[in-house]
Specification:
339 residues; alpha/beta; TIM Barrel; Four Helix Bundle (Hemerythrin (Met), subunit A); two-stranded antiparallel ribbon; 16 helices; 40% helix
C-alpha cells in the first residue's frame, strides 16, 4: 500500500499544491554536511513537489545533544527526518518527537557504510540483522501516524544475492511499506563512503525486479541518477526516484522536477530568481547570527555551465566569509551572471 501525501503544502509565494502522487515519487537524498536546513530551504524554492530529506541525525544527538537537531523551516514541507540508530526504544522516542514537530515522514538509515556509523551499530551493517530493523520500524510505527520508511542497499559484503535482499525486505515489510533502495551493495570494510558510492557496480535491474516481485510495496530507486530524463525512465519500473549529488552540485536540475515528473504547468524558476528569492531568508538568518557562507555554500553550483558561473563561485568563495558579508555580497556576485 503506497503512502500518499495529500496535505496542502504552502510555499513562500503563498501558493499551494495538492499532490496525489506517492510521497517518494521524487526526493533529494539525505547527505551528511550538505542537506541542512539552509540547503533544503533553497531546494524548496526550486521545486514545490520533491520530498526533501534531512541529513542523517542520530537518536543520541536528538535525545541527549545540546542543540535542536529537529529544527527545520515550515516552508520545507514535505520533509522527512532520516534517523540513525538501532535501539527500538530510542528510535520510537525520536519518531514521536519528530511527528510532534510536524515532519511528514521518518526514514531509517540502513544504507550508510562509514566506519563511524558501523561503530554506532546503524546504517548498512543493519542489513545483516533484518529482524532488528523490523523491530525498530515497528517500534516507530507504533508511536506515529506518519509513514516510517527504510533506506537501504541491495546488499553488503558477500551478502549480495537477490535472495538475501528479498529476505531482508520480507522480514521488514510487515511494518514498512516504502523502501528507498540504493542500487549498489556496500562494502563495510576496505572502501571509504565515497568509494562505496562509486566502486560497487549499479544494479538497477535488481531494484526493478524487487518492485515486480513485491508490487504492493512502494519502491524508490537511488544511486548514480544524474538527470530527470533518467528519472522518468526509472519511473516506468519503480514508484520513486531519489537523486543525491547531482541535485546538490547542480541544483538547477530541481527547477524542472515539478513540470517533468509531476505534470505541473507553471514555468520553472530560473537560477537568478531562486537566488534572489533567498535574500529575505538570508537577511533573517544573518540577524540570527548565521554567517553568510553557511548558507551560500549551497548555492554555488546553481549556475553551472552558464557564462559567469566560475566568477560567481569564486566571488562568493572569497567574500562570503568576510566580516560584514551580507545580501549585498550576493548581489555583487550575481552581476557576473547578468553582465
Amino acid at each position: 500500500m503506497a503512502h500518499y501525501f495529500i496535505k496542502q503544502v504552502f510555499i513562500l509565494s503563498g501558493h499551494h499544491s495538492l499532490s496525489r502522487y506517492p510521497l517518494n515519487r521524487f526526493s533529494v537524498a539525505p547527505m551528511l554536511d550538505w542537506t541542512d536546513k539552509h540547503c533544503r530551504y533553497f531546494h524548496r524554492l526550486l521545486t514545490k513537489q520533491a520530498l526533501l530529506y534531512t541529513e542523517m541525525v542520530t537518536t543520541g544527538a536528538i535525545l541527549f545533544g545540546k542543540g535542536d537537531y529537529l529544527a527545520y523551516n515550515e516552508q520545507e514541507h514535505p520533509v522527512s527526518l532520516q534517523l540513525g540508530g538501532s535501539d527500538p526504544v530510542a528510535l520510537a522516542k525520536c519518531a514521536k518527537l519528530a511527528e510532534e514537530r510536524g515532519y511528514d515522514e521518518i526514514n531509517l538509515n540502513v544504507g550508510c557504510p562509514s566506519d563511524r556509523v558501523q561503530n554506532g551499530r546503524f546504517g548498512a551493517c543493519l542489513m545483516s540483522d533484518a529482524q532488528l530493523v523490523a523491530d525498530c520500524v515497528k517500534a516507530m510505527q507504533d508511536e506515529v501516524a506518519i509513514p516510517v520508511t527504510v533506506k537501504t542497499r541491495i546488499g553488503i559484503d558477500e551478502q549480495d544475492s537477490y535472495d538475501f535482499l528479498c529476505q531482508f525486505i520480507e522480514t521488514v515489510m510487515p511494518y514498512c511499506h516504502t523502501f528507498i533502495v540504493h542500487a549498489r551493495k556496500a562494502w563495510l570494510s576496505g572502501l571509504s563512503p565515497k568509494e562505496n558510492r562509486e566502486i560497487p557496480p549499479l544494479d538497477y535491474l535488481r531494484v526493478y525486479q524487487l518492485k515486480q516481485d513485491y508490487p504492493d510495496l512502494t519502491i524508490a530507486i537511488n544511486g548514480g541518477i544524474k538527470s530527470l530524463t533518467e528519472a522518468q525512465e526509472h519511473l516506468k519500473y519503480v514508484d520513486g526516484v531519489m537523486m543525491g549529488r547531482e541535485a546538490y552540485q547542480n541544483p538547477i536540475v530541481l527547477s524542472q522536477v515539478d513540470q517533468m515528473l509531476f505534470g505541473c504547468q507553471n514555468a520553472p524558476i530560473s537560477g537568478i530568481e531562486a537566488v534572489q528569492a533567498m535574500f529575505p531568508y538570508i537577511e533573517q538568518q544573518l540577524l540570527a547570527g548565521t554567517p553568510l557562507n553557511h548558507i551560500c555554500r549551497h548555492l554555488l553550483g546553481i549556475f553551472n555551465g552558464q557564462v559567469g558561473a566560475r566568477q560567481w563561485r569564486r566571488y562568493l568563495s572569497e567574500n562570503a566569509t568576510k566580516k560584514g558579508a551580507d545580501v549585498t555580497t550576493m548581489e555583487r556576485a550575481l552581476e557576473y551572471l547578468q553582465s
